[in-house]
Amino acid sequence: MPSGRMIKLVVYEVLQVACLSVPMFVVMERFASLMLHVRGDLTAYWLVVAASIAYVTSVSLLVWVPLRYFVLKQRTVITDITQWRPTTLAYVILCTLPCFSILIAGSKVQVDKGPQYRQDHFSELPVSLVLFSLICVDIIERIRPCCLTGQADHMEMDLDMPGPVLTHLEQVNSVSGQLYYERGQNGVLVNSSATGRWRDQEAVGSRSTSAAYLYSSSHSHSGPLRVLWSQDMRSEVIVHSFLFWMDVVELVRVAGIPDVFYSGWVFAVYILAFLSCLRLAVTPHSALLPSAGFFLQDLPFLLLRLGLISVHGYITPLLYPMKNLLVCLTFTYFNFLTKLRLFRRDSMF
């Protein structure tokens, strides 16, 4: 009888193959139906369907299966990779890119044939299925090292969860406590007679205590409401993965609006959406992820949304361009402007 580890491995691999093939089949079938409507020829329909089957079969056998073999066998060429994920990058290139290309081709075909042939703007099922499969692949790759039964290993899960991780904390409640801490660590009392120095050290203790309150991941609570304090990092991975892609989901939703889909804006929407999907290849704790989010998502999305709003009106909620603007401003300020002499003064707030 196969072990639980083997069953989990097979289930994960089958789910990833399904996420690779099902969106392609659905999008290609819709495109084949569109070609049947435009040309009125059943041969074009079956040619597109046959092309989709041939593509999925060849890609699965020639690219996906060898890649998964090297990943599972932990070959040197794979174990040396620490800043990006080969499986997710391959999925974005092999599935997401062709699906977005087919959606653009569907728009181009209908625009060239005239307004009377505009019947399908590929909203809802095809686009939602592509993005849902993308999210599922991300979730599988993050939750793969974890057991699906029993309690979660928080230290193991923290490696796959982006965000601040508090590994060590010294709580300092007062200035004297800070001085005692420095004396015990260094053996020498640090000369810090400036008033601002005292305040800074006290603020360090306050910030450390606040950080412990915000980011502590394990609490022991009892009583009738203890069920409300329960948490499991495995479920948080799923929630975070969906939230991570909400900005892309909203942008692609705008592409399904007929005024956008049957115009040149559809090219910009799907191209920028694909570039944003490339962030999936970066490991969650990589130092490249904030820069990738700025250059591949927030800055391009902000410019695109401003252009869409100026031409088509408020077709997207203002929350999203405001979010992109805020992220761009804070990223530029904290990563570049704070390094200037003007913003390095300790006396400023």
From TrEMBL:
Ranges annotated as spanning the membrane: 9-32, 44-67, 262-282, 321-338
Alphabetical UniProt keywords: Membrane, Transmembrane, Transmembrane helix
InterPro entries the record matches: Uncharacterised_FAM23-like_TM
Superkingdom of origin organism: Eukaryota
PANTHER family per UniProt: TRANSMEMBRANE PROTEIN 236 (PTHR31453)
Name of the featured protein: Transmembrane protein 236
Designated gene of the protein: tmem236
